Amino acid sequence: MQHSTSKSKFVRVLLWTGILGALIAVLAIAFGAGLTRSRDVSSGPEDVTTIETPPTSEASAQNLSTLAISTPTSTGKVSTDRDYSNMQLSDNGWYRVSYVASTSVIPINQMHRWTLHIETPDGQLVENATITVDGDMPEHGHGLPTRPQMTEYLGNGDYLIEGVKFQMGGWWVMDFFITANDQSDKVHFNLLLP
Amino acid sequence: MKTRIIMANLLTWMGVAAWLWACSSFGPPGWSEEELTQLRSLWIGSLPPLPADPSNQYADDPRAATLGQKLFFDKRFSSNGQVACATCHLPEKLFQDGIPLAHGIGTTDRRTMTIIGTAYSPWFFWDGRKDSQWAQALGPMESAVEHGGNRTMYAHLMEKFYAAEYEALFGPLPDLLDLPARAGPVADLEASRNWEAMSADDRELVTRIYVNMGKSIAAYERLLIPGEARFDRYAEAILNGDAESAKEILTPDEIAGLKLFIGQANCTNCHNGPLFTNNDFHNTAVPAALGLSEDVGRVKGLEQVVADEFNCLSSYSDARPEECVELRFLVRGGDELKRQYKPPSLRNVAQRGPYMHAGQFATLEDVLHHYNTAPKATIGHGELEPLNLTEGQIAQIISFLRTLDSQINAEPRWLTAPTE
């Protein structure tokens, strides 16, 4: 009897050990799979996630199709509910404005150009506007390293903005003050650079 | 019963084996997608080809580089025959001098910056008062506390020692016989008076020679590019998905330091890109150096570069005006620029103490403690926020910074004084 009791105790210990082992196996496999996923992300230098930004209208769709901006991240440093669209309505609703950069991805530390496309909300091209530019990093208390300027009206509601440069990643705002036909308005873009 | 016991044991050992496999296969934790983007941007493989210098048509002429190297090391080009560019930019010290304030004829108010990798920068000196390598090279030559020389003196020296090389590149030297031995727009009163007494045409001829000296030196300095560091080999392995090799390259502390560098410590706000600098200007509340005159940094540097007779838009520049994009779209002056200085590249930073624009901090520990405590700027607008790093984390960041040591990626003949 005593022998039988100690034997069943031994079996129970072995059984529990087995269950524990199985649990360890499941945990280990899950951990391994997680790390593998993390490692897979690094599998190619070209593996940069980009999103195509929506065109403002059919007329400018061709221009905008080349634009890719970095995907907003979820690091917690930056609010993810901010509107990072490259098409915005101006503050008072006078203009619908979109931009496209001269580079496929908006770069850090590299001078580049933007083309600003301006329409009225009902789709009329805005011609011969005057535009001034301002940009800064609200969380850092400093502005752009350059003073971008509108240097040329390209026709078709498109304006060339030269001298754009960003010196660090993070949340940037770009404001364009637009005056056309005696109507002044400001349009505001958010950018999140890697 | 026997089968259950065998199964139980089998599961136990499977579990242990799987656990051991998981631990051995993945040493350090993985990198997030955002971190990998940062690693890729810092990796030296992301360094683009050497950018053109439209302001210097001789920038990529090997004959200019050869002449420039000779001038760089030639002590005769100074008022006392003891100072060359290489006096402060010593090749054996990564083209800097390792002392708080540069010392030539006298002592300057600033720390010597390295030349390595500066061909990628749009601005030169701590305050960006020059906008090309050639314009930068000409500054110290006329400074009373550096080379202490003047333009006619240099023109005469070029004619005496380098006439053939100069003329092969730049055309015939003008007749210099009637020109004073010492004349130039410098602090030395006699030289300055002599300069004013010269005709505008003569001043122009002499200045052309002076400019061509700068363009030759710049053609040489362009060749000094940082090489691959241990960090770069790690980044490359990680980017190629080779975690096995990567963990042999950096220690866990160095990796932890790298994670902090691109994360909590905010270092990449300014020290970003493959040269670990954005070449912009920042006020990081670095205390003024004791005993020096007031230094407002970029505010003055910006005024100086706009007024500089050798800037990209000047008649001595070979660039078309539209190519001078940095000057065309230059920010306006203002309080925001006060006591802003250019963040230097961090490649080889561990070998380049003391730190900051006047060598205010002796060690990297001092630098990290400054950024960690984030004192308020006494002048201008400081950009620092406290980092809340522990002493251990500071040590890890410094460990990482030591992984940025590398050789210079240039032919050995460029790294010593020329033999002939």
Secondary structure: helix percent of chain B: 40-55%
Q: What's the pLDDT, averaged over the residues of chain A? A: 75
Tally of extended strands of chain A?
Answer: 11
CATH architecture assignment name of the largest domain in chain A: Sandwich
- The CATH class of the largest domain in chain B turns out to be Mainly Alpha
Report the total helices of chain A. Answer: 2
- Compressed to H and E, one letter per element, the order of chain A equals HEHEEEEEEEEEE
- CA-based shape of chain B: globular
The coarse silhouette of chain A is: elongated
CATH topology of the largest domain in chain A: Immunoglobulin-like
Structure description:
The complex is a heterodimer of chains A (194) and B (420). Chain A is 22% helix and 36% strand. With 194 residues, chain A is of the alpha+beta class. Chain A folds into 2 domains: 1-47; 50-193, Macroglobulin (MG2) domain (Immunoglobulin-like). Chain A has a 5-stranded antiparallel β-sheet, with no helix packed on it. A 4-stranded antiparallel β-sheet of chain A has the order 7-6-10-11, with no helix packed on it. Chain A has a two-stranded antiparallel sheet with strand order 1-2. In chain A, a hairpin with a 6-residue loop joins strand 3 (87-89) and strand 4 (96-101). With 420 residues, chain B is mainly α. Chain B is 41% helix and 0% strand. Chain B is built from 15 helices and no strands. Chain B has helices spanning 2-25, 33-42, 62-73, 85-88, 133-142, 151-170, 189-197, 200-221, 230-239, 243-249, 252-261, 298-307, 325-328, 364-373, 391-402. In chain B, helix 3 (62-73) crosses helix 8 and helix 6 (151-170) crosses helix 8. The termini of chain B are far apart. Chains A and B meet through helix 1 and strand 7 of A and helix 1, helix 2 and helix 13 of B.
